[in-house]
Each structure stands twice: as structure tokens, then as C-alpha cells.
Automatic annotation (TrEMBL), chains A, B:
Pathway the protein acts in: One-carbon metabolism; tetrahydrofolate interconversion
Organism field: Defluviitoga tunisiensis
Catalytic activities: (6S)-5,6,7,8-tetrahydrofolate + formate + ATP = (6R)-10-formyltetrahydrofolate + ADP + phosphate
SUPFAM superfamilies to which the protein is assigned, alphabetical: P-loop containing nucleoside triphosphate hydrolases (SSF52540)
Swiss-Prot/TrEMBL keywords: ATP-binding, Ligase, Nucleotide-binding, One-carbon metabolism
Example of a GO biological process term: tetrahydrofolate interconversion
Designated name of the protein: Formate--tetrahydrofolate ligase
Gene name tied to this protein: fhs
Molecular function terms, GO-annotated: ATP binding; formate-tetrahydrofolate ligase activity
Keyword ATP-binding: yes
Gene3D superfamilies with a match to the protein in the record: Domain 2, N(10)-formyltetrahydrofolate synthetase, Formyltetrahydrofolate synthetase, domain 3, P-loop containing nucleotide triphosphate hydrolases
Family designation: Belongs to the formate--tetrahydrofolate ligase family.
InterPro entries the UniProt entry points to: Formate_THF_ligase, Formate_THF_ligase_CS, P-loop_NTPase
EC number of the protein: 6.3.4.3
Pfam families according to UniProt: FTHFS (PF01268)
Amino acid sequence: MLTDIEIARSAKMRKIVSIANELDIPEEYYNLHGKYIAKVSHQYLNELDFKKDGKLIMVTAITPTPAGEGKTTTSIGLSMAINKLQKNSIVTLREPSLGPVMGIKGGAAGGGYAQVLPMEDINLHFTGDIHAVTTAHNLISAIVDTYIKYDKLNIDSTRVLWPRAMDMNDRSLRDIVVGLGGKNNGYPREDSFVITTASEIMAILCLSKDLEDLKERLSRIVVARNKEGDPITVKDLEISGALAVLLKDAINPNLVQTIENTPAFVHGGPFANIAHGTNAITSTKLALKLSDYVVTESGFGSDLGAEKFYDFVCPTFGLHPSATVLVATIRALKYHGGQSKSALSIPDLDSLKKGLPNLQVHIENLKKFNLPVIVAINKFETDSQEEIKLVLDFVKDLGVECSVNESYEKGSEGAVDLAEKVIKSCEKDSELKTIYNFEDELEIKIDKLVKNIYRAGRVEYTSEAIQSMKFLKKYGYDKLPIIMAKTQYSISDDPHKLGFPKDYTFTIRDFELSAGAGFIVGLAGDMLRMPGLSKVPNAVNIDIDKNGNIIGLY
Amino acid sequence: MLTDIEIARSAKMRKIVSIANELDIPEEYYNLHGKYIAKVSHQYLNELDFKKDGKLIMVTAITPTPAGEGKTTTSIGLSMAINKLQKNSIVTLREPSLGPVMGIKGGAAGGGYAQVLPMEDINLHFTGDIHAVTTAHNLISAIVDTYIKYDKLNIDSTRVLWPRAMDMNDRSLRDIVVGLGGKNNGYPREDSFVITTASEIMAILCLSKDLEDLKERLSRIVVARNKEGDPITVKDLEISGALAVLLKDAINPNLVQTIENTPAFVHGGPFANIAHGTNAITSTKLALKLSDYVVTESGFGSDLGAEKFYDFVCPTFGLHPSATVLVATIRALKYHGGQSKSALSIPDLDSLKKGLPNLQVHIENLKKFNLPVIVAINKFETDSQEEIKLVLDFVKDLGVECSVNESYEKGSEGAVDLAEKVIKSCEKDSELKTIYNFEDELEIKIDKLVKNIYRAGRVEYTSEAIQSMKFLKKYGYDKLPIIMAKTQYSISDDPHKLGFPKDYTFTIRDFELSAGAGFIVGLAGDMLRMPGLSKVPNAVNIDIDKNGNIIGLY
């Protein structure tokens, strides 16, 4: 098979103008970024109030493994297949961060014959959204240190809560000291850089309905505490306006196309552990007005992205999702069953059987949200018939629909059965049930999540967590929804607990506040917010010829 | 008078498509960035070999003062006026950096009725060129620290020559320690951030003819020395391809329009002390093919930007400039004559007279390049008739043309006389003479500059400079042209020497190598490469309403 970039390059793209035309987006409501990308004004939503929303389908996955699950590929393939069935569908995805593109992971624009295009641009600077977030983020930092230097706002320089940000995998910036060199350079203090997608501003961008909402959320960010311990916000810094100006274009949905020329929005990319993990809400809302079936994805496994989407995003914006697609692969299930990464291509019913409980717990968890669940087995050519049958039977026994997705190799053709099952499920009139209510006390919210989703027997709070809780309560932040930051490699808080862990102790190590995004982050484990490059980073494989043809991106 | 942003907003812009059409740029050779900005492929130049170049006019200024000289405003006004005289003209400018926009300086898209539009975009993220430079710059840093961690290339971590970069005024990042926190984060070392426009990659971007040239230049960057003292280059890091991929769009000229709908390229922005200080060469070359008169500007006073343009840029690219416009203001001349900043609006022939020697030395210096010099007095409404007459007479006595430029208040109408004089001067068949030759020994080059331009009696080298010279000679870098990094506030190396200093000692403190850009930097003073924010930064004045209208940018 050809590489992703070869397939991408051989695809015939349509001009984005004609795709925008088909969606009836008036010319004054979008700006072109080259011939194949358009930024649609979020204000166009105001013109569409009269329209009914389409159906919302959320794609999630079992617990991620190094074997890869293909959630983005499945989302794209499913949306293309719905279009093939003569229904309108738009897929909405997160945009890739440059750091990992240069690192080991490669891009994030789908794969094979289920990609969004132009993949080179999407995987590189795209429309500059992430750069805008970086700039806004670092403006706050520069202002905080300037105010410390000039002794404004009584900032406690030992309690600056706002790191700096860069869209790069750069481990050397994880722990740094800034402000050295004497009086002209300000006051020395410990600091750190996070990768831009881990910035609260990325979460805010993806949770803002419009410029006013954006400005309001930005103003609420808590950046530091003063010497009395009180929170200092962006409002106190007086720069919410400047930050919103820097983000004025980034809030607008990016319209691109799939490899089969169906519309796609690729927009925003917050983490699914320390943030909510789905694409920008302006894109989802716009897609719901512009199509009958919106396929969206959420980050990591269903215990992270899907939980946050259903418990936090949907209630916040009044979204009514219709179905959940749970992506699993034979390879990943074998890995969960104890097989080593190098042997995943060899048929092995034994490991597969041992790995099925991971699929089971995700199915059980997702059922609690009261929406139809459809399992999509994302097929690899090394999967045997027996292996696939084993999974199909297992899922059927749990009373859940299951389909084999071959869109990586076959495009929409490979996802028609999945699409039919999804469309049928959407016809049921299901209503989302959340695990917790916004009104629940903080500890109650956590308790419900821990027992229902992470499947622990009990919760423990460290003394740091108890201390932080006092701060949250003192300033009234404890009423915010909870976003749990925990490992993606297990449904538990321990990356080594594969499969279906239960009856263990879930530990809340600390809390962080994302007051602008509008949630409390519960830290259940160490979250790495700045990846590193490997010994041989992908950057060394990337090249361009004199005509601008790129190699090494995937 | 209205503010810049009010004037800009009330202007009627033409769609950039129609401007591109008038320039006969085929659609396949440009990409739109919204309705009013296009990126023109640098490869379009290959189609234009058959065309003769237009005349090249370089706009420079007297020694800068806090009073402002209006070089960009004059360049734009002059180009608009040439168009008004029924000749084709394109103005080529540097693009503003976001750091200063948020700091104290405001934007850099001209002013009053001589602006380039859309000023909001140009002053904000524009087409993302600077962000691309930041990313490429920091990829090198991340790779260097990764290779140090994994003990590749035998890099001496105490001799990393490559800082990190950010497009922000952030003094806290001037002196930092990175790599703290233990083994996983690499090895601690001293480091610093420069503002992106000070990155060698910005200079390289502006000096690269095409993607191959770009890749070649990138590969030559010296990033560190190994434990034997030998230079380590980007070629050794094996990432020239990845860097070129990150810069593949940034190399393409940005086409915008002036407030009178004439074409303008705004592209790249290297410093004029540690780098060469003019917009990207692809834009200048393209403008020369597309119009009869190209007006370009160079950074700071003529001792910095103009000298570098004539001695380095023109010979490197075989450019044949036709005339020099030297911008002066009554206010700045009074400041040079000893008047305080607060009193510059009061007529004061005495201070003005005392300041005239600064104008004189710039005129004398510029004459040495053998091109016609035209002085443009950039008029402010507080200038008195007597003051203007004094300057006109003074310039006439030096045998040089002089014109009063009122384009800030009147647009092209205010620069017609200037345009006529410039056009007339271009008719002479002048040939550029440089101060030094590329073949001269390094010390000879410096000696010629110091005596002819900086007007010192002698040069001294510190022991650091002598040491660095040995390194340059050992590895054959001493044959490169010299770019002098010195204060912009005096033609000398001392910011306190106003007016026309002479017979002093010029001190070369050290050398730096910009092997990718292709020059040696002579450091004659401390160059601040990372500005800071002021106590009340401009960011607090910037705001946006719900319809996207911005205030506080200028």
C-alpha cells in the first residue's frame, strides 16, 4: 500500500470554495487560506438559528496502546460512508500539534484512504490557530513577569500558576529558571514550558461560542496568587481584550475536505486529560447546522474523552448526542491481553481473549450514558477471520452492535456497514444521561466518576489535594465541573493496570483550576505536559524538494 | 485627525484578487489568505526571466530618535505618489513583529494616509511567517538538547551558540537555565531567548532565493561547537529538510495593498544591526519584475540598514539600485540638536541648526555609494515654515535634492513632488559603488566601514574579538561579508554620541557567525535581542468588540 502522503498527494481535491458553496455558506462568511482551506466565521452561526441541528455521533476508543486504534481514521471513514449513503455528514476533528509531527508520532489527519486534506498543511502550520494560542499564552506570562518586576498587583512570584507555552516537543523546557541576569531582566523564579495544546487557552478557545464568551472566559483565568493568597486573574492584568484580539481568527472553524471530497472541520486540539479533549465548539455547532450527521471524536479512551464530552461538553452547550462509536482493534486487544508489541501481527486467539475485558469495560461504561453504542473493529490486514469472529461474537453477547471498519484500506466503501448501523441507531430517540450533575458537591462528582467509570473501590485524597480543595472552596471555584487528569493507558489511575482493573484505590494527588475554561482539574497521576523528542526524531525524515513536494510526513 | 486604525477601517480596500490580476499574476501562482492578502509563490519568478527589472529606490533615514522619522510612511507615500504619476510602483516592506505590537511601539504598517492594509492583520499574525520562523528556530534548539541528552555529535553543552526564540517582548527570558529537573529532562545549561526577528533564520528566510537556496543556507547554520571546538552545523543535525518544510510558505511574498489600492509586498523582518535589515529578497525580486519603480526600506539609520543593503544585499543578489531617499524630520533634527523630547513641537531654529550635522553625515555617507540622494522631510503639523526652509536651504547647499513629504496627512498627494524628484534621479545611469569588497580581508572591511561610515579615527579589537577572529579564520569563515551590530542611536558605537561624531575609537567587542545567512556579525556594543514590556504595555489598550472591530492597534 502507498504511504499516507502518497495517497494524499494522488487524491483529487476540490476547491474549498465549491465545498463551501454546497454547504450554502455565503462568501462573506468565509476567508480562504489557499485553495483548499477556508476559515468560516463563527458569526455565521447567528444566521442559522432557524435550522434544526443534525444528529451528533461521538467516536471514542478502548484504552490506547502503542498498537494504535485509528479513531480519527474511523471517524473520517464513517463520515465519508454516511455521505456515500446519500445523507449529509460532516466530520469534526482536532487539529494536529506540530511538536509531535516533528517528534515520533507523526501527524493526525487520519490515514490510508480515510484522511482529511490537504494533510501537509493540516499537519504543519495549518491556519495558525495553535500559533495564536501560543502567542496569547505567552503574552500572559510576559505581562505577569513585567508586573512582578514593577511590583504591580502584589503578585507572589513563588505562586505564579501560569507556565509558558511552546508548540514543540522540548523536554529541556520542562523545568527552567527565568529572570536571571540582574535587575533589568526582572526577578528569578522557577518556571516551566508546556506544549501549547496543554495551555488553558487551547481549552478556552475550544469552549468559546463567540468573541464575547471568549473574552469573558479569558478574563477569568487565574494566573497567580498575590501575597495574601488571593487569586489574580487575567481581568486584573487588563489584557483580556488583547488576548481576544490575538485569537480573533483562531475561533473560526477551519473547513477542509476528506479524501472523498466531503466536508470536514479540523479545529482546536485540547488534551483529553487536563482538558476536555474535543475540537472547538464553534465547529461542532456549525457542523450540526450544516449537516444531518456530525461525526466527532474525543481524545484517548472512553474513560477520558467520551466521559468529558458527555459529562461536561454536552451539558455546557446543550448538545444532544445520538450515538457512540467505540473503536477497537484486534492488535490493541491482543496487547491488552499481554501480547508484546512486536508479535501483534501474528494471529493469537489466546491473547485476544485475555484482552477482551478492556473492550467490555468501555462498552459497560458507555452504556451508562444511555446512548446506543456501536463497536467499530478497525481492521488491519494482519487480523485473522477467527480473531474478528471472536470479537464480533463477544460484542453481540453484550447486546451491542458491531461492525468491521475497513476505511483505511477502502475509504467509505469500507465503512458502509458501520454507517448503516450508526444511522439506524440514531433513529432511536435516546437521551443522554450524565454520570454526575453540575450541582453535585466536588467530592460527590469525583466519587461517581471513580466508581462508575474508573471502577475503583474507593478514593483517596493526598494532603496537597485537601489543601487545594480548601482554596477552591474559599473562592467559590468548587462548584465547577470536574475534569479528571489521569493516565490514558488504563481506565484506572495506574498506567500498568491493563484490561479491566477493579476494586483498587483511586488517588487524587492534587487539584488545578482552569477557571477560564470553566473546570477543576483533578490530578490523578503525573501529567506530562511537555513531550520530548526521541533519540532519532521524525524531523530527520522530513524533506522537501525544489518544487515543494514534501516527504516524511505521516 | 483620525487614528491610524480609524483611517484604515474607513479605507475602501480592493479584493487582492483584482490587484493580483492587474499585476498579471496567474491564479495558480498565489494563495489567498482572506480577501485582502495573497501569498504569491516565489516560483513565479522563474516565469519572469524574460522581463527587465524595474528601478530600485531605497528609503533610509537619519539617526533614529524617540521622535520618530516615518521611514515606512514615506516609503508607502512615495510609492503611492509614483503610481499617481501614472508609473507603476510597488512598495516592499518588512513585516511587523508581534512583540513590539503588544509592547510600546505599536505596529509598523505606516501611518495616517500612508498605510498598508489590512493593518490589523499585518500587525497581528499576518500570514504566519514569523510564527514559522519561531517554530523552525526552536526545532533546532529542541534537537540540540536532545542530541546532548543522548550524547550524539559530541556537542559541548557549554558552547551551544543557538538561543531559543519567541515573538514576544519578554525580558524574563533573556537569561535562563534550561534542562533542570533530573535525567529525564536532559542536562542543565545556561540559555536565552531572543525575539524571533533576531533569529538567524529570519535573516536566512529573507536572503533565500528559493527552497533549495533556503535548505542550503539552513544547513550551514553553526549551532554549537563540539568538545574539540569544531563547529556543529544544522547539516550535522540532519534537519535542514524539516526546517525548510516549516518555512515553505514563509518564503512566498505577501501581497497586500496601500490605502490607495496600489500593490505592496510586506515580507520578512530581520534586524538591521545583527542582520541585514531589509524585507525578503523574493519579494524585492518579484516586485522588480512586476513594476517599474520598487520602493524598499532598510532598517534604522543609513549607517545601519542602507550600508548593509548596498554593501551586502545588492552585491549578493546583483541588484542595481537607482536612488536613495533619506528621511529626516524637523523634530528628530531638533532632538539631535539637544532639544528634549517634550519640547519638540515648539519651533526652535537653534536646536534645529545644531542637529543638522546629523543630516549632513548621512548625506555625505550616502553619496559614497554613488547613487543620487534625495532628502525627504517628513512633515509634522507642528513644523514651522522657517524650520522647513532652514533644512531645505541646508540640503541644497550640500548639492542634494530635497522635498517636503506630507503623505501622512495627504496620502499620495503629499508626496508628488518627492516622487517627481525620485523619478528624475532614477533617469541618471548611476552605478552603485560599495564601501568594501567581498574579497577584502576581514580587518580591511571593518576598517573601511569604520572610517567611511561610522567616522571613527581608529578601530580597537577586544581580546574576545581577537579570539573569535582566530576561530573564524581557522574554519574559513573570515571571508564572509561583515554585518556590523552597533547602536542605532548614533552613527558611532556609542548611543550617547548624537549628531556627527568623529575622530573617536570604534571598538569591536566580539564577533558572531551567521554562516547560514552568510555573514559575520561584528559586535560593537551590547545588542539587546529580547525587548521587554513597559510598566503599562500597549496590550492593555487593545480590545475587540463582538463584531470583531479592534481598537488600540496603531
